Amino acid sequence: MGARKRNIANKRKEEKKDQYFAVLRNNPTSPRKMRLVADMVRGMDVNKALDVLKYSSKEASGKVEKLLLSAIANWQAKNENARLEESNLIVSRIFVDSGRMLKRIMPAPQGRAHRIRKRSNHVTIYLDKKNPVTE
């Protein structure tokens, strides 16, 4: 690896130390359904987002709630003595990417076959401190 690449990689690694995030990979739900849940909690306070996800009727909200708890645990691992209630954490970024697609075949009339695509997704959630409003 060249010096320039190494310097950029080290810089990227240092920036990642200040971020608190969690990743869920190959979740067997379509990305479109997961994005509906992700849009509900984007920009929300962490405690309020947990409440919204807990009482949501969507199946994907349980997975996002578990992922949010994992991100909170990652934040607590880096901040030993900090309390969650006093931290002013928000869900700064959450995005859903398309994962691998399982291609299956379903029988159709007159001896034909239709292709079914069983989609999956990857969810990434970032936590950040709420910026105090200065006037």
> What portion of residues belong to β-strands?
25-35%
Corresponding CATH superfamily: Ribosomal protein L22/L17
* Secondary-structure element string: HEHHHEE
Stated plainly, the CATH topology is called: Ribosomal Protein L22, Chain A
User: What is the β-strand count?
Assistant: 3
- In helices, the fraction of residues equals 40-55%
Number of domains: 1
The biggest sheet, with number of strands, parallel, antiparallel or mixed sense and barrel status, is: 3 strands, antiparallel
Under the CATH scheme, which class? Alpha Beta
| Distance linking N and C termini | 48 Å
Summarize this structure briefly.
The chain is of the alpha+beta class.
Describe the structure.
The chain has 135 residues and is an alpha+beta fold. It has a single domain, classed as Alpha-Beta Complex (Ribosomal Protein L22, Chain A), CATH 3.90.470. The chain has 4 helices and 3 strands. The chain has a 3-stranded antiparallel β-sheet with strand order 1-3-2. A hairpin with a 5-residue loop joins strand 2 and strand 3. Helix 3 packs antiparallel against helix 4. The termini are far apart. The relative contact order is 0.21. The mean pLDDT is 92.
Secondary-structure map:
Blueprint: H1 3-17, E1 20-27, H2 31-41, H3 46-54, H4 60-78, E2 89-107, E3 113-129
Antiparallel strand pairs: 1-3, 2-3
Helix pairs in contact: 3-4
Descriptors for this entry?
single chain; 135 residues; alpha+beta; Ribosomal Protein L22, Chain A; three-stranded antiparallel sheet; 40% helix
